[in-house]
Amino acid sequence: MFLRWLFFLYAIDAKIIKNVNLPSCVNCKYYRPLHSNFFHSNYNECKYFGTKNIQTDLIDYDIVKYCREDESRCGLEAKYFEENKYVALNMILHSVIHPTNIILIVFLSLYICAYVYLSEK
Fold first, then answer.
1. CA distance 93 to 85
2. Where are the domains of the chain?
3. Is 110 exposed, middle or buried, given 0-12, 13-18 or 19+ CB atoms closer than 10 A?
4. Where are the alpha helices (DSSP H) in the chain?
5. Residue 88 has what pLDDT?
6. I need a labelling partner for 96 at 20 to 30 A (CA). Which of 3, 6, 105, 115 fits?
7. Which region among 6-20, 26-40, 86-100, 106-120 has the lowest average model confidence (pLDDT)?
8. Across the chain, what does the average pLDDT equal?
9. Left, alpha or beta for 78 (phi > 0: left; psi -120 to 50: alpha)?
């Protein structure tokens, strides 16, 4: 009887998802995936927050995870969230531009060119 009651409590608790109504950073127009990370990584960058280097004019963007944890920046409620309408396209481009895929595409292109060149001889 105790095990059945314990399973019942687990089944009820498993269906409660926290923060399901809050927007995801992945769907924000300020979300910038790094080429070395997966598209859905917590350690990608937020283009809304950053620091500009005054000598080089390069901007170091803040990490998405830390922007969402800090209430003085975006916070849990995503104060500065603006929807990106092209998330699916960005995901495809990110997967194609990923360094391992570029190497694969270059070698495949060279193989096809060599095959066509040698077959014409």
1. 14
2. 2-85, 87-121
3. exposed
4. 2-14, 64-69, 87-97, 99-120
5. 83
6. 115
7. 6-20
8. 81
9. left
**Separation of alpha carbons 52 and 60, rounded Å:** 6
Tokens of 16: 């409660």
Residue with tokens 């917590």: 42
Q: Which two tokens stand for residue 117?
A: 């060149």
**In angstroms, rounded to a whole number, what is the distance separating the alpha carbons of residues 61 and 29?**
14
Q: Which two tokens stand for residue 91?
A: 């995901």
Query: Are the C-beta atoms of residues 46 and 31 closer than 8 Å to each other?
Result: yes
pLDDT tens per residue across span 46-55:
999 999 999 9
Q: What size, in residues, is the chain?
A: 121
CA distance linking residue 40 with residue 42, whole number of Å: 7
